[in-house]
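[recover] target loaded
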């Protein structure tokens, strides 16, 4: 069985070399040479920034690194899934073979293994499918847990990203690919057929809230990979705090990003990946 314990990050950032940036519909898969990193647990992330021209330019931004889920590990490589949604992600999408990338990670807490005799249902929306790819790799390497993959996207261009995983059922908002409607409609069908499942989800806040509520009503355990604005990635800035059931807050970067859905009263609007 693979070791699902959280990998400790090196204390300082590392300068990595880009091996390639592959187009995947509306997204890009950034591949970097990464030999010395501890093996990440599915669901962990890294703080990354371009080594050159990181700051200034459009709106004189960005200067802070961006948090990205680790999408896949290959021998000597780490992969990230990118979407151009602003100056920071645009600069990362511009990187090509030979360019430098600063990285700090793996950081945070990842997914817990499924319960015995339970299947795993992976539910991803938009660029939030990234941590589910490495999770699917880990589950299939153990070959002990049936895996169902449900992915949702806005349109056909983004639905191409489903190729990051395999065997997925796809839903699109505009009906251009797969099921025309909400991703949670597919999840409801799966749970009606067999509720003996552990749900793993990452995506926009509205989707995560729908998954949380659906699983709560069905008495099905769910683990949600949250996203929030981070300046540091290791709990110092409190920029990523989200409220929890019963009062108080947790920091997504150190208490998450993967959170047991039962800990949350509601998934707040800033705690989801962009669609």
């Amino acid at each position: 069985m693979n070791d699902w314990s959280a990998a400790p990050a090196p204390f300082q950032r590392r300068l990595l070399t880009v091996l390639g940036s592959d187009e995947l519909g509306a997204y890009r898969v950034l591949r970097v040479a990464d030999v010395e990193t501890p093996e990440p647990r599915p669901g962990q992330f890294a703080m990354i920034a371009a080594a050159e021209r990181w700051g200034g330019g459009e709106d004189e931004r960005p200067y802070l690194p961006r948090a990205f889920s680790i999408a896949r590990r290959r021998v000597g490589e780490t992969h990230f899934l990118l979407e151009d949604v602003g100056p920071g992600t645009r600069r990362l999408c511009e990187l090509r073979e030979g360019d430098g990338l600063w990285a700090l990670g793996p950081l945070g807490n990842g997914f817990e293994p499924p319960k015995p005799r339970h299947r795993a249902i992976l539910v991803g929306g938009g660029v939030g499918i990234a941590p589910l790819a490495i999770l699917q790799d880990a589950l299939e390497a153990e070959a002990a847990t049936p895996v169902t993959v449900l992915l949702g996207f806005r349109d056909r261009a983004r639905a191409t990203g489903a190729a990051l995983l395999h065997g997925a059922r796809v839903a699109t908002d505009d009906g251009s690919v797969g099921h025309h409607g909400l991703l949670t409609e597919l999840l409801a069908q799966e749970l009606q057929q067999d509720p003996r499942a552990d749900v793993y989800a990452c995506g926009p806040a509205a989707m995560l809230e729908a998954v949380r509520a659906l699983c709560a009503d069905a008495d099905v355990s769910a683990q949600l990979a949250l996203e929030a604005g981070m300046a540091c990635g290791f709990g110092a800035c409190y920029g990523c705090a989200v409220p929890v059931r019963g009062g108080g807050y947790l920091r997504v970067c150190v208490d998450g990003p993967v959170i047991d859905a039962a800990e949350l009263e509601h998934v707040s609007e800033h705690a989801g990946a962009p669609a």
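[recover] notes: The radius of gyration is 18 Å.
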